[in-house]
Amino acid sequence: MISEKNITCVVCPIGCKILVKIDETQLETVEGNKCKKGIEYVKNEVFDPRRMLTTSVLVNGGEWPLVSVKSSKPVPKEKLFSILKEIKKTVVNAPVKSAQIIIKNTANTEINIVATKTVKKS
Amino acid sequence: MVKPEVIKVIEKTVDVAVIGGGPAGLASAVSAREHGAKNVVIIDRNNWLGGILPQCIHDGFGVEETGTSMTGPEYAEMYIEKAEKQGIDVMKETMVLQFDKKREIVAVNKRGLHKIKTSAIVLAMGCREKTRWNVMIPGDRPSGIYTAGVAQAFINLYNIMPGKNVIILGSGDVGLIMARRLKFEGANVLGVVEILPYASGLPRNVVQCLEDYDIPIFLNHTVTCINGKERVKQVIIAQVDEKMNVISGTEKKIECDTLLLSLGLITENELVNNVGIEIDNTTGGPAVNQYFETTLSGVFACGNCLQVYDTVDVLATDAKKAGKNAAKNLTIKRKDNKIITKVLPGRGVRHVVPQIISEPGKVHLTLRVEKPIESSVLHVIADDKEFLKKRLLWVNPANMIGVDIDIPLDLMTTTQNLEVMLDDF
Question: A68, B399: Cβ pair inside 8 Å?
């Protein structure tokens, strides 16, 4: 079965509107992209969309109540909210150093959640 | 009453004083130090360095500068470490009250009143957000109305949720990023309202902050009224025509408890107003020459108090030049060159920096266009004669444009104004 999808390419600020026709597991046609990078982008968007996740984690006894965190790699889009749920349950003790691992293998993605800020003890 | 003799006056002398410890202040201070200034001080009113960066927890910072995409706090720490290593003096929780034509700064903090003699000053005060009163939204004055950046600080720094059911007015990047951030924290984002026919933010943010979470964007719409006694209860949005006038009969009521405003930024230059530095009315910042020097000798300007930048990378690149020139200002003897050429924005161009060319040579112009154009030609006109022509594709007011030009000496002596304009091609 062939399905259609409209995708805005975000590789550069032009933001091409790309129309793709998908036959189950492969791209049938790609229209509207002004460069080759658009093809690679829509391929990923259709079959394995991923996003960098940035949010914050509660800190116990720190100069700030929160430490900002990020996923060590882009995470699968459909797992964003299950990862966020796990992050929300997490509390970390001060001091926290930037790049410190806060959650290992979050939601079984083999991706870590790491601190992006240094938070000293209060 | 405090007796005058109780107020402690602390005096010191420095080579370069940088006012503001955000990204521009940090980059210019580090650069001034690297280029020979021995005594560099950063003065900031907050109790942290990095300015807005610690609350910008999303990534995308430093891509052009370092090749990796950093979050705001990571980018800030990179520069804070550099500043520490170079022994740059930092005065936190210190408010600069004024400086004068001799570049003497008066500042105040808990320790007392500070008089700081400087050889050069770098202005890096940044900008602030437009509020409801800049666009005059009618209605009640309840709680629950925040600028997007204030809501960002609440959520990302202080762990306070600004509300549950949120409408965002303005589709600049901060507004879009806040839509996603609120969604992540469990709020219900009812929509983004944009008066223009297109989103002001980057397509990337439209996709990854709105479309990913099915957050609607109401283009050609604005908020016409805010209702609510204690707390926001409802906002009214309506469609606008090409002239941005509200089309009556298109009003829609939206029940919500919070309105975020992402209306754009205003350069912050109150300090500059009383000392006779020329201000460019379109940027709202000081007019500078190609060395980022203002019309007051030895005073330089960079960052968002000069002009509002799109990315921290370009901002830092310019701030480093300002810092370097502030350091050089200590060693070179000024040629009192009275011949200057003014750079003026023409048709299709909103503003150009630098506004003044004070010496011949290579000059890097940064400019912002009036509206999006697919294919255009940029003209630089020297007193009615075309001096430079350049084809530009996909120009957009959201993207600052950089153009290098080479100014020959004879042009400086014969030309008073350089006009930069843009035509459809």
Answer: no
Q: How far is B144 from chain A (nearest CA, A)?
A: 22
Global pTM value:
0.94
CATH no. for A54-115: 3.10.530.10
List chain B residues with CB under 8 Å of A51.
208, 212
Domain boundaries along the sequence of chain A: 2-48, 54-115
CA distance A122 to A95: 9
Structural domains in chain B plus CATH codes = 9-129+265-334 (3.50.50.60), 131-263 (3.50.50.60), 335-425 (2.60.40)
Q: Which residue from B minimizes the CA distance to A74?
A: B59
CB B122 within 8 A of CB B18: yes
Beta strands B221-227 and B234-239 are: antiparallel
Token duo for residue A46: 């259709």
Angle, CA of B218, B219 and B222, to the nearest 5°: 75
In the stretch 42-101 of chain A, residues with CB closer than 8 A to chain B read: 51-52, 54-56, 58, 64-66, 68-70, 77, 84, 98
| Residue B68 DSSP label | S
CB distance A117–B77 less than 8 Å?
yes
Residue B343 β-bridge partners:
B418
Count contacts between A and B (CB, < 8 Å).
72
The separation between CA B111 and the C-alpha centre of its own chain, rounded to angstroms, equals: 30
Integer Cα distance of B48 and B75 in angstroms: 14
Question: How long, in residues, is chain B?
Answer: 425
- Give the torsion through C-alpha atoms of B202, B205, B208, B212, to 10 deg: -100
Q: What is the ipTM of this complex?
A: 0.92
Q: pLDDT (tens digit, 9 = 90+) per residue, B280-292?
A: 999 999 999 999 9
- Rounded alpha-carbon distances, angstroms, from residue B105 to B15, B99, B185: 12, 4, 43
Instruction: Give the DSSP per-residue string, B157-187.
Output: TS-----SEEEEE--SHHHHHHHHHHHHTT-
For residue B372, what is the nearest residue in chain A, using CA coordinates? Answer: A14
pLDDT digits (tens, 9 = 90+) for B76-115: 999 999 999 999 999 999 999 999 999 999 999 999 999 9
State how far the Cα of B288 lies from the Cα of B357, in Å rounded to an integer.
8
d(CA B191, CA B213): 11
- Are B110 and B60 in contact by the 8 Å Cβ rule? The answer is no
* Min Cα–Cα distance to chain A from B57, Å: 6
Of the candidates A52, A68, A77, which has its C-beta nearest B73's C-beta? A68
* Mean pLDDT in residue range A54-69: 98
Cβ neighbours of B211 (radius 10 Å)? 16
- Strand B258-261 and strand A17-23: the pairing is unpaired
CA distance B60 to chain A (A): 10
CB atoms within 10 A of CB A34: 13
